[in-house]
């Protein structure tokens, strides 16, 4: 049965994008706010779940950012970004950064500071990871960015905010 599914995808079936979208909805992921500073010094940010560690030697992580996101030119221009790993208490803030309708309120809400590299970070984030872009790859509508970790801090015990099947969730930790 699995082999038949692989054959179907290999045929460039027009339903591939829909099937992939549905498959990805079932992948639970930690919710992050990705921040950067634009050329005019304005803070930019977006909610995202496409973040992963790449290597511990040297410490690197990767993020995927839609080219149309307001934070994308800021990251590409500055070569820097900060991953703010959200806690279970940050669902409302995640929603604010996920919507372009209320951009002006993004950094006016919650306690924001700057790290040693000038990147905005959320003081209540469960973890903060500041990076310098070392690799960039354009893939479809997105940029895959690999960042060398310049600064990392854990501000609270792990109680992550997770996104799965179109909604936020708080997993029960074992």
Q: Tell me the overall shape.
A: globular
Count up the domains: 1
| Lateral strand order in the biggest sheet | 3-2-6-9-10-5-4
Uncertain segments are: 1-9
Number of strands: 12
Query: How many helix segments?
Result: 4
Our Rg estimate from Cα atoms comes to: 17 Å
Distance between the termini: 34 Å
The percent of residues in helical segments reads 10-25%
Structural class: alpha+beta
Might you state the CATH topology name?
A: Pnp Oxidase, Chain A
Task: Describe how the helices and strands are arranged.
Blueprint (H helix, E strand, L loop, with lengths): L1 H9 L5 H10 L3 E2 L1 E6 L5 E6 L2 E6 L2 E8 L4 H8 L1 E6 L5 H8 L13 E3 L5 E3 L4 E13 L2 E13 L7 E3 L2 E3 L5
Antiparallel strand pairs: 1-11, 2-3, 2-6, 4-5, 5-10, 6-9, 7-8, 9-10, 11-12
Describe this protein's structure.
By secondary structure, this protein is α+β, with helices and mostly antiparallel strands. It has one domain (29-163): Pnp Oxidase, Chain A (Roll). Helix content is 20%, strand content 41%. It is built from four helices and twelve strands, in the order ααβββββαβαββββββ. The protein has helices at residues 2-10, 16-25, 71-78, 91-98; strands at 29-30, 32-37, 43-48, 51-56, 59-66, 80-85, 112-114, 120-122, 127-139, 142-154, 162-164, 167-169. A seven-stranded antiparallel β-sheet has the order 3-2-6-9-10-5-4. Strands 1-11-12 form a three-stranded antiparallel β-sheet, with no helix packed on it. The protein has a two-stranded antiparallel ribbon with strand order 7-8. A hairpin with a 2-residue loop joins strand 11 and strand 12. The longest helix is centred in the N-terminal third of the chain and has 10 residues, at 16-25. It starts with a helix and ends in a 5-residue tail after the last strand. 28% of the residues are buried. The model is unreliable at 1-9 (pLDDT under 50).
């Amino acid at each position: 049965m699995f082999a038949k599914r692989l054959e179907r995808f290999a045929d460039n079936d027009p339903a591939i994008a829909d099937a992939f979208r549905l498959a990805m909805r079932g992948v639970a992921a930690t919710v992050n706010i990705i921040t950067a500073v634009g050329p005019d010094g304005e803070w930019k940010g977006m909610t995202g779940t496409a973040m992963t560690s790449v290597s511990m030697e040297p410490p690197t992580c990767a993020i995927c950012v839609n080219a149309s996101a307001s934070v994308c030119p800021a990251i590409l221009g500055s070569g820097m970004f900060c991953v703010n790993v959200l806690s279970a208490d940050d669902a409302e803030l995640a929603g604010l950064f996920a919507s372009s309708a209320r951009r002006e309120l993004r950094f006016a809400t919650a306690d924001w500071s700057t790290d040693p590299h000038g990147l905005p970070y959320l003081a209540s984030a469960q973890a903060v990871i500041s990076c310098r872009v070392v690799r960039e790859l354009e893939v479809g509508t997105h940029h895959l960015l690999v960042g060398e970790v310049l600064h990392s801090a854990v501000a609270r015990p792990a109680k992550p905010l997770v996104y799965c099947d179109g909604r936020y969730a708080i997993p029960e930790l074992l």
